[in-house]
């Protein structure tokens, strides 16, 4: 696993939390929810290939 992906996830987390707090304080809770959801989806799209690779390695290890 690359170290840069951890920094990317951290940057997205910081950006999403700041934007979400700004939107919540301005009374736009719906947009804050959408920002949080989109941040989660972006991170999931980055993580899914690593999870797939993990399951492939486990399958090869146990020869299932």
UniProtKB/TrEMBL annotation:
Keywords: Membrane, Transmembrane, Transmembrane helix
Listed InterPro entries: Spore_III_AC, Spore_III_AC/AD
Membrane-crossing residue ranges in chain numbering: 6-23, 32-52
The keyword Nucleotidyltransferase is annotated on this UniProt entry: no
Protein name: Stage III sporulation protein AC
Gene name tied to this protein: spoIIIAC
């Amino acid at each position: 696993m690359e170290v840069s992906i951890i920094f990317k996830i951290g940057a997205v987390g910081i950006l999403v939390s700041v934007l979400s707090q700004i939107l919540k304080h301005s009374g736009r809770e719906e947009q804050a929810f959408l920002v949080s959801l989109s941040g989660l989806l972006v991170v999931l799209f980055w993580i899914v290939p690593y999870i797939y690779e993990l399951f492939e390695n486990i399958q090869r290890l146990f020869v299932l």
